[in-house]
Design a protein that fits this description.
The chain is an alpha/beta fold. It has helices spanning 59-72, 88-95, 106-125, 130-138, 161-175, 189-202, 220-230, 247-256, 270-279, 298-311, 326-335, 378-388; strands at residues 3-12, 28-40, 43-50, 146-152, 180-183, 210-213, 237-239, 261-263, 288-289, 340-342, 363-365. The protein has 2 domains: 3-127, Enolase-like, N-terminal domain (Enolase-like, domain 1, 2-Layer Sandwich), CATH 3.30.390; 137-388, TIM Barrel (Alpha-Beta Barrel), CATH 3.20.20.120. Bound molecules: magnesium ion.
Amino acid sequence: MRIIDIAETTASIASDIRNAYIDFSKMDVSVVKITTDVMRQGEPVVGYGFNSNGRYSASGILRDRIIPRLREAGPDALKDPARENLDPFRAWDLMMKNEKPGGHGERSVAVGVIDMALWDIVAKIEEKPLHQLLAERFNDGKASDHTFVYAAGGYYYPGKEITGLQDEMRSYLDMGYSTVKMKIGGASLKDDLARIEAVIDILDGDASRLAVDANGRFDLNTALAYARALEPLGLRWYEEAGDPLDYALQAVLGEIYKGPLATGENLFSHQDARNLLRYGGMRPDRDILQFDPALSYGLVEYLRTLDVMRQAGWSPSRCIPHGGHQFALSIAAGLGLGGNESYPGIFAPFGGFTDTATVEDSQIPLPATPGIGFEEKSRLMALYRDLFG
Ligand code: MG
C-alpha cells in the first residue's frame, strides 16, 4: 500500500472578471494526480487534487519541497496504523517537516492540493463517497445527502451596470439557486447601493437571500459607512469588509453592524482561525466562517480548525467554505457544515460540482461515487487526461 507516482502541473483558470481587489486575468491552479499500487475494479487507485480560485498555483513549493518529502519517505511511511489505507495525517507531518510555524501562505496551498488528492484516495480505497467516510470517522455517522449552496458572482458590468447584474442574478435563480452573492467595494457607496437594491428587486424584495462581499477592500471608516447603509436592508451577510488580518477592524464592525458578518477565506491555518475568533469579535450565534480547505493545508488542518472553533463555542454549522469546489462540498456534507459556495459557470472545470447534480431551492445532492466524486465531472476528467495522459 504505497504511492507509486505523483504527477504535478499547472492549469489556467483565467477569466475577465474582477472583484474589489484583484482581476483574474492570470489566475491559475496547481493540479496533481497521485497514483497508488492499490487496485480497485482492476485499476490502480488514483487521487486528484487542485487548489481553488483566488490564490495562484504553488507549483514551485510543490516541486521543491512538498513532493520530494513524500517521495523520500519510506514505503510504509504513509500507511494508516489502524487501517488498510493511507493516512493523510502522517502525510501532513511529512509534508511539513522542517517548516517553521507561522507565515501561512502559499505553502498552505501546496499542502492543500496534495491533501485533497490523498483524501480522494482514502475514500476510494474504502469504496465510499468522501462525505460518507468523513461522517463515519468524524461526525457520528451523520452524513447529509444534500447541502446548501449559494451562487457567488455579481461582478461589475461597466456600461450596463444594473441590467447586466440583474441578468446574471436571474440566471442563477433559473439554475435553482435561491440565495446569491454580489461584489461590492468596486464602486462608490451610492452606486453600490443602487446595484444592491436592483438585485433585491429581482429576489422579490427579500434581502435575506442576498449576501454582499467587499473582498477585504475597506478601511475602517469605509467599512462602517457601508455597515450603516446596509444594516436596514437585512442582508444574508456582509463579507470581508476589511483586511483579512485586521481583527480589530472586524471587532469594531461587529459592534456596529447587527446583521451577520462573514470572513475567513484568506485565513489559512487553525492558528489564524483561532486569532479571528479570539480577537475579531465574531459572534457564534449569527456570523459565517469561510475557511477554504483547499487553500489552507487541506482537510487535516480543517479538522484542527473545527476543533478550535468548538473550543471557542462555535458550531461547524457556522462554516460555509469559500471556493465552490467538490472537495469542500464533501466536507460540508460529511462534517455538518452550513453549506458551500458555488460559482456557476466560472473557474470550471476545477470549480463546480458533478455533471448531473441539479440545484433545487439552493440545495445540491452529493455524488454516490467512491472518493470526492471527480469521476462524475466529465470536463475535469478530460482535462486530467490532457494534462497527464
Ligand atoms: Mg469572498
